[in-house]
Design brief:
This protein is of the alpha/beta class. The chain contains 11 helices and 8 strands.
């Protein structure tokens, strides 16, 4: 399984030294090239961005030494409407982040539209989303507070003021005032104030925390939204604690799945 994403200007230009230009076309060509390589084809590619071998040099059309594996599933981590459409068109699955199941159509409708362009449907993709932290307690407030700095980091630090795709998602989901205020506080280096501004509701909607009844209900909401797979981060100070939380979640998922068996 291979996951790919276009990243953003801060990382591409600051870390890789590559202009963040034409991300959709770049992703499309990357998927094309990767599929050629994994199928064992000799790599000759004429794209709008990539020309392989590079003309005028010593490059040769090569074949990968690794054994061909033509059916490796490719998953795209996308957030914007156009990239979501590309996911539906090209990918085997979607790696969703900043996902709130109550706003699933914001993600799934563009994916479905992209899939329809090539004669597919949403059911042809594995829709994986980040279910966030998994933690159980009757003291829900104790579980909420530690999650707020991470959300503040996402809204404030995961991009520039001009391009923060995660911030954009929360704004489209109806949290525009919060998203903009937290981002502004973050850039002013008021990190604690930014975390305090995160509403409890947002923490609860983006994680699987609380009592077993609360977590079970959130699983139901994800399933009803059309999610196939939950990717989670079990909480705990030790490996045993994390495994215990994961085991509790698995049992709840089984219960919810059983509710839908005639």
């Amino acid at each position: 399984m291979l996951g790919l994403g276009v990243s953003g200007p801060q990382v591409m230009e600051g870390w890789h030294g590559v202009r963040f230009a034409r991300p959709l076309q770049r992703m499309r060509e990357n998927v094309d090239i990767i599929r050629m390589v994994t199928c064992g084809e000799r790599l000759v590619y004429h794209g709008e961005i990539y020309e392989l071998p590079l003309p005028g040099g010593e490059g040769r059309a090569l074949v990968a030494a690794a054994p061909a594996r033509p059916n490796i599933p490719i998953y795209l981590a996308t957030l914007g409407p156009k990239n979501l459409g590309l996911t539906g068109e090209l990918a085997d699955g979607w790696l969703g982040t900043s996902f709130i199941p109550e706003h699933a159509p914001m993600f799934f409708e563009p994916i479905a539209a992209g899939a329809a362009k090539v004669g597919r449907s949403l059911a042809d993709l594995d829709l994986q989303v980040a279910g966030g932290v998994v933690a159980f307690s009757d003291d829900v407030e104790r579980l909420i507070s530690p999650r707020k700095p991470g959300l503040a980091f996402t809204l404030g630090a995961m991009g520039s003021r001009a391009h923060n795709f995660y911030n954009d998602v929360y704004r489209r989901a109806g949290y525009e005032d919060v998203a903009l205020e937290v981002q502004d506080l973050w850039f002013k280096k008021q990190r604690e104030e930014a975390a305090v501004r995160i509403p409890d509701e947002l923490v609860l909607k983006t994680n699987l925390i609380g009592t077993e009844d609360m977590v079970r209900e959130r699983i139901r909401v994800h399933q009803a939204a059309g999610v196939n797979t939950l990717r989670v981060e079990p909480d705990g100070d030790t490996l045993d604690e994390r495994l215990a939380n994961l085991a509790r979640l698995i049992e709840l998922v089984k219960e919810v799945n059983a509710e839908n068996i005639p």
